[in-house]
């Protein structure tokens, strides 16, 4: 047997994707264990709770990164296959706030939700959840005391916004929100990848000639960063 040829035929990208998938599963178990640990720590041990919350936050960030890498691999870095179904936005928001409850409670940052119970939309629930969750995780890191998660129908579009009362988006992050794949570099780090991934998810949602968009700005009612995704 020619071992050289056998080695050269290995699809390294597939091996890497399988490894990432395995790491993601391990991280999910780790995150669940961290949540269980937090519940078992006496309330009066503030420092211990703070450390556990920080570990939970970092593990969640790693998990988000791995999910993004897997999705981009499966999309072959060009198009993102989506599975569209009807979803109630209030349920989507509840999933996001629930997965971030430990860290938001520890940081004393309230997540305010503003959405009609009967508002539903046809979208890929898993992908939109990942998009919104990543924005909320970022807002939790920089927000001071409040995050507002809201959704409404406007001009035949679903408009979801995430606002915080932090210092707002820096200029370089605004620029990264419009970075094309051909201009994207790994050195841009997680922030660049996260924004590119968000734009990819939004753009994958289409209706007739319309496609979804994301917009970053500063100000809003809370005075900090404002992330808006519009889906047709």
CATH class of the largest domain: Alpha Beta
Write down the overall geometry.
globular
Identify low-pLDDT runs.
1-9, 184-191
* Global Rg: 19 Å
| Beta content | 15-25%
Name the helicity range.
Answer: 40-55%
Strand order of the largest sheet: 2-4-5-9-8
What can be said about the biggest beta sheet? 5 strands, mixed
Structural class: alpha+beta
Q: Can you tell me the CATH architecture of the largest domain?
A: 2-Layer Sandwich
What's the tally of helices?
8
Mean pLDDT: 79
Number of strands: 9
Enzyme class: transferase
GO molecular function: kinase activity
Organism: Alteromonas aquimaris
InterPro entries: HATPase_C_sf, HATPase_dom, His_kinase_dom, Histidine_kinase_KdpD, Sig_transdc_His_kin-like_C
Protein architecture, described:
- By secondary structure, the protein is an alpha+beta fold.
- 53% of the residues lie in helices and 20% in strands.
- The chain has a five-stranded mixed β-sheet.
- Helix 2 (12-40) runs antiparallel to helix 3 (46-74).
- The longest helix is centred in the first third of the chain and has 29 residues, at 12-40.
- The relative contact order is 0.12.
Summarize this structure briefly.
With 232 residues, this protein is of the alpha+beta class.
Label this structure with key terms.
single chain; 232 residues; alpha+beta; Heat Shock Protein 90; 2 domains; two-stranded antiparallel sheet; 9 strands; globular; HATPase_C_sf; kinase
